[in-house]
Amino acid sequence: MQTLHASKCGLSTAQLPSSILDVLDSLTKAGYEAYIVGGGVRDLMLGLNPKDFDAVTNATPAQIKDVFGRRCRIIGRRFELAHVYSGRELIEVATFRAPPKTAVTSAAGMILRDNNWGTIEQDFARRDFSINAMYYQPRKSEVLDFCHAVDDIQNKTLRLLGDPTLRFEEDPVRMLRTLRFAAKLNFSIDPDILAIFTPQMTQLLRDVSPHRLYDESQKLFTMGHLHRVMPMLIKFGIWEQLFADIPTEITPFMERAAKNTDQRIQIGKTINPAFFYAVLLWKPFLERCHSYLAKGVAPAEARAQAGLDVLKRQATRTIIPRFAETFIREVWEMQTRLLNPKPQQIEALSSHARFRAGFDFLLLREKSGDDATQGMGTWWDSYQTMSVDEKERAIGQYNRQRAKNRRKTADVTLVEDTKNTATSIEPLVKESETRNRRSRKSTPASSSNDFRSRNDQRAKLNTGEINADHPIMKRKRVQRDLSQVVFGPTQ
Ligand code: ATP
Ligand code: MG
Question: Whose CA is nearest to atom 3 of ligand 1?
């Protein structure tokens, strides 16, 4: 172990927010050791802006709770942690961990329970990469480096601590972390990792919960280098493990959307991580639509069912939360509305809650060469900057054009539902329809009480109010075997 002076590593307390200093100081005052560890130290040394600062200490979660009282909450089961609030900031405080006991690992060697407290040396050995295992004590101006991690920072190398095969077996998510950090930091991957990072090794990801994989997919989408990591996911065979029906081919649309996501992050704009799922699943969605249409299903029903099917199959890999699934289906449905809007609904559409996401999606499609958008991306783009008079003229012109040449194309999203002439917008996604289908199945002989409560729930759904004990929230989600997932009405 070498102790480095913080200034030699380019670190100083001036770079740290008061919240992390407050947490470290309180622990030190109470007689415990406390350090900053992980991404915070790594990113500061690389001159990057850390996402957050994690603390580590020899105090147990119960002792941390004693120090911080009501400012502290103990969370997690597999990995017990303390969440400490300092002002409005939340700091994650972990206790030094010892090696896992064999009794709490799965048959494949995966760690299932991991609350065995230990020393700083043991804690170090449990971390994933050398560059994530430096301990910084800002008040002492010290960085503890147990494995020449500083050299790896300098050489821009991602090196796993210990035997790479064992470390991947213990926690297969480390494969995703390898690609994420390599892409984010632009580091090269140590040859010892490359040697064992085979498609066979990626099969281990099948044992990881699809909830955790969803979280990891979000980190990949939002790290600011999505564009760089996508080909790596394909190259290392991770893509198939993360996505059920998305071909291992980066389409111009995905490419453009990924670059756009990275740019937005760079300039500090917000992104909805579900948006990129909508992009990835767009092609499978269209294919499903076509297949329903070919069977004679009405367009609106085909789109609704195709959306549910595609998301159901994706849930074998990553469980997308319900609200994000709804967002994705709404963005897809918006494509139809924006492509062939009823003239009297144009203004209402432009102020719809899903307009921005739907329009961005349409424009990205158009700019990536998808001519099925028929130039409507550009049309909406200029519409938004027009004065009231200009808008009126643009709508009139659009209306005449529309009457003259009824848009005909192979794209199913173009198919229009003509009956409605109202100026208000119909709901994009009718959650209640899918839910009714399900509840009829699960409660064949419902009492009048059940019926009333279902009606109450339906009313709540229509107002967008869905609470945790609503049946829609309890649908069985985890189905790992894709061959068991059939297309058709969702159960
Ligand atoms: P960032 O927050 O920028 O994504 P990070 O390195 O801080 O990167 P976190 O997921 O916040 O990553 O984890 C904090 C630290 O905990 C890591 O730096 C690493 O030392 C350790 N760690 C996290 N996940 C694992 C894992 N799966 N296996 C071993 N150590 C891990
Ligand atoms: Mg972190």
Answer: 39
